Amino acid sequence: MGVNLNYDQNMDVITQQAVKSPVEIMADPERIGDATDEVEEMEEEEEQTGVDGFAEQVLRRPDVLAALQGRLHAEMLEQLPASVKRRIKALKKLQLEATNIEAKFYEEVHLLECKYQKLFTPLYEKRGQVISGVYEPTEVECDWESDDEKEAEISADMKNKMKIEDVDSNKKQENEINKNDDTKGIPNFWLTIFKNVQMLSEMVQEHDEPILKHLLDVKVKFLESNPMGFILEFHFSPNEYFANSVLTKEYEMKCSPDEGDPFAFEGPEIYKCKGCVIEWMKGKNVTVKTIKKKQKHKSRGSVRTVTKTVQNDSFFNFFTPPC
């Protein structure tokens, strides 16, 4: 009925469509062959199919299909009796009313998310403290049975022995951990998350990884109204790459049917986003790269080297979205 506004599932709220490039198609072992033969086969197929083949190609285009469907729809309506046309108009008015109610529903869903986010916040704060090493969880807080532990297989005798030995063994283990393990928090927690979520992993480049190791926490702040929206906050530890401790991206949403096409309404829609300025340290900006090109003078034949700065693929381009 609309978009899911759960921040964990839509952290960036950016949907990218991947189109297989000619290079990728050529790299596909099943597609590799003699290019000349492939062209000849395609030409022969076109000659054989003729008009039917052309029609099939045209009908594969979404814009052509949409235009044809619109025209057929209009022609179909024109052929209907006046009394039926009148009733269809009444249905459209009812649908518009339902759409406006749906918009109100989504507004209230957003307010409900804002309300419950306040309940989640203390849990997320503690999560951040555990990840960064600021807080060490107690034994009770760590009492979580792993998937491979099967209590049913442990005999009653073993349980009794464990109870007797647990107190001493826990103390010994705790002392050993304190003596030998100086690991703080959960290293590379967010980098691991990013690399294991498909949409995010596609954005993260190899040169981004050392920076993302400094990412301590990702937070969301909901904007209740005027306008509806939310802000993503990325908290970093001090690092050699940029001076910012927090990078932000703000999204504004609208939740009202478009007057020109009210029946296309599918829930809250992001219509505006704003990034932030990253204060890069000298020579550490991974969003740009310097390339050198040789240019030859037409008349003199002399060659000169031109240096040019161009955009580089990077996760951190996320914070400079197009206007």
TrEMBL record:
It comes from the Eukaryota. Belongs to the nucleosome assembly protein (NAP) family. GO terms for cellular component: nucleus. Pfam families: NAP. GO terms for biological process: nucleosome assembly. InterPro entries: NAP-like_sf, NAP_family. It comes from Diploptera punctata (Pacific beetle cockroach). This is Uncharacterized protein.
